[in-house]
Amino acid sequence: MQELKNIKGTHDILPTGIAKWQKIEKVLQKVFTAFCYKEIRTPVFENTALFARGVGEFSDIVSKEMYTFNDKGGESLTLRPELTAPVARSYIQHHFWQDAPVHKLWYLGPLFRQERPQAGRQRQFHQYGVEVIGSSLPEADAEVIALAYSIYRELGLKNFALHINSIGSTDTRKNYTDLLQKTLEAQRQDLCDTCKQRFDVNILRLFDCKNPGCAQIMKNHAPSILDHLSREDAEHFTRVRELLDAMMIPYEVNPALVRGLDYYTRTTFEIKGTALGAQDALCGGGRYDNLLRELDGPDTPAVGFAAGMERLILAMEAEGLFAEDEEGMDLYLAPMDSRALDTAMPLAQSLREAGYSVYVDLLGRSVKAMLREANRKKARHTAVIGEDEIKNRRLQLKSMFNNSVSTLPFEALADALINEK
Ligand code: HAM
């Protein structure tokens, strides 16, 4: 019989690893709350047309990475490969603009892309991200970048770098891509096959090619988009930079940062992990002023980013940021037999109601085995319950910090635990 296993490119997040996720999620909640962003949750699957129209037919995501299937009604559905288009769809469907002119939203959830799995690249992965819908001002771009940056700072990450660019508004980009095609025509035959294909449909993606020959051609021949911005685009970009400077957020201007999704206009940015391997993009985003209109919504400007959770965990592990995070518990109760459980379980229950974490052994093992496990589980206190303890309603509370032992009536337990909580 076929062995039942998880699908390639997906991972179980096991109880032994969950503390890392929870640590990050706690910081996310804190930073999103500090910036006054509200959470939004959308379904895991959507109509395929949403992504084809939103993300762009010629993007890698839509052309080769989507998990698409027909349901029993014959409708084409897709497991969401990103969350900007679903959030825009929800904004349009629920007429968000009727409540307020600007919405600041955040999300966290699983996404699906059929990519070749490798370190930092899965087929099911998780992103947190934000979308600010309703402001065309550069201040919104700067706020979103500041938020993305604050999360890494708050988590204590050191090895990362912010790259920013502007790819201009639609007209600017049209002029620039024409110029790029003209300039690179002479090098066309020297490009790799993928770049040759992209030359006519999405020439900006030539900047993302990892082939050293293509990278050299771009370096030597491609004009910088920043020299071809319209006056308004250039002013917008200058203002974003001024605000980042004022907030003391360090960045590098990178005119080759074009991003792989089609909806961007003007500001684009990425945060790269400087100690990560090939998959070094921790976070990516930018402004997308046309997407809502293209999805038949109101002509509403927007800006946002999304960041990979798994890559963040890799980056934090590399910096030893999870080292002393073992959660442990306030008390490990070791009942010596099933009669002792009659006493241990209600006692544990009342302590939990008082706010303590209490682990009760349920296997009826030897005291030695239970205490060894308590140690392994990083219990801060242990107490054995046997016949004497039941009769006298007193127990010996052992502190694992200093090995001190105190004999206490059950009622005094909560007060004793608090001292070393
Ligand atoms: P993206 O650049 O496709 O942008 O993805 C953002 C981040 O998700 C990446 O920087 C990376 O950390 C993570 N990521 C992407 N693919 C994978 C994968 N296969 N495995 C692990 N992590 C991955 C977007 O998705 C846009 N929706 C961002 C955005 C929001 N733009 C505006 N608003």
If you had to describe this structure to a student in words, what would you say it looks like?
- The chain has 2 domains: 18-169 and 230-318, BirA Bifunctional Protein, domain 2; 328-419, Rossmann fold (3-Layer(aba) Sandwich).
- 38% of the residues lie in helices and 20% in strands.
- The chain has helices spanning 18-34, 48-54, 60-65, 84-93, 138-155, 170-184, 193-201, 212-221, 231-246, 291-294, 309-318, 338-353, 367-376, 387-392, 413-418; strands spanning 38-39, 45-47, 68-70, 76-79, 103-112, 124-133, 160-166, 252-253, 267-273, 281-287, 302-308, 331-335, 358-360, 381-385, 394-399, 405-409.
- The chain has an 8-stranded mixed β-sheet with strand order 1-5-6-11-10-9-7-8, sandwiched between helices.
- Helix 1 runs antiparallel to helix 5.
- The mean pLDDT is 94.
- Histidyl-adenosine monophosphate (HAM) binds at residues 82-84, 113, 115, 120-122, 125, 127, 129, 131, 261, 281-286, 288, 304-308, 310-311.
